[in-house]
Every structure is written in C-alpha cells, then in structure tokens.
C-alpha cells in the first residue's frame, strides 16, 4: 500500500471515526497502488497535508483493500479526491492535478 508522508491511511473500519466524525474538513484521497496518477499526487498531497494542517486533514484510502467505502461513495476513477465536512461529501475532484490548481478547486469548501 502506498504511504504518503504526513497523510494517514484510513480503512473501511476506520472511515466513520477518522473522516465522518472529524471536526473540520477532511480530504480523502481514493487511491490504488497500480495507479500512476495516484503516485504523481503523493508529493502534492504531502505538501497540502503539511501546509494546510490548520484547516484541513488529509487522509488516503486504498480502494483495492477497502471496497466498501469506495462503493458507498461511487468512486470509479483513481485518483478521486473527496472533501467531507460534517459527515457528508461536499466536493469531489477526479484526476491528478498540481497543488495550486487543487487548492483553487477546493477553496470553496475549506
């Protein structure tokens, strides 16, 4: 399973506690080891996790090992980045992108 510095891995078992019950917004990276764009996103997500820690939690979920959560949110393409707030998904973006564009895409939900 791919590990990103500063980004906690969540599972089907821990998703409700770590994401749905979280205080502030949580960015979930739906990822897979076999996905080249997911690997491109790793340093971007590590930077965002570090720089935006005061207002955003970043976690990653391996879809191959956690099919229940992937199915529950209808995630079909990797990477899918989904922001949850108050237990609900409030924004989703699909595909790799640079840090500046990703932060701009997420601005309205942070």
TrEMBL record:
<keyword id="KW-1015">Disulfide bond</keyword>
<dbReference type="InterPro" id="IPR005746">
    <property type="entry name" value="Thioredoxin"/>
</dbReference>
<keyword id="KW-0249">Electron transport</keyword>
<dbReference type="Pfam" id="PF00085">
    <property type="entry name" value="Thioredoxin"/>
</dbReference>
<comment type="similarity">
    <text>Belongs to the thioredoxin family.</text>
</comment>
<dbReference type="InterPro" id="IPR013766">
    <property type="entry name" value="Thioredoxin_domain"/>
</dbReference>
<protein>
    <recommendedName>
        <fullName>Thioredoxin</fullName>
    </recommendedName>
</protein>
<keyword id="KW-0676">Redox-active center</keyword>
<dbReference type="InterPro" id="IPR036249">
    <property type="entry name" value="Thioredoxin-like_sf"/>
</dbReference>
<keyword id="KW-0813">Transport</keyword>
<dbReference type="InterPro" id="IPR017937">
    <property type="entry name" value="Thioredoxin_CS"/>
</dbReference>
<feature type="domain" description="Thioredoxin">
    <location>
        <begin position="1"/>
        <end position="110"/>
    </location>
</feature>
């Amino acid at each position: 399973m791919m590990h990103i510095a500063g980004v906690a891995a969540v599972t089907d078992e821990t998703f409700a506690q770590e994401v749905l019950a979280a205080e502030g917004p949580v960015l979930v990276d739906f990822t897979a080891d076999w996905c080249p764009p997911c690997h491109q996103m790793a340093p971007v997500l590590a930077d965002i996790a570090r720089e935006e820690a005061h207002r955003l939690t970043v976690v990653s979920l391996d879809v191959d090992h956690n099919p229940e959560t992937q199915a529950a949110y209808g995630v079909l393409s990797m990477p899918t980045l989904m922001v949850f707030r108050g237990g609900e998904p409030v924004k989703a973006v699909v595909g790799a992108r640079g840090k500046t564009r990703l932060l701009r895409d997420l601005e309205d939900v942070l």
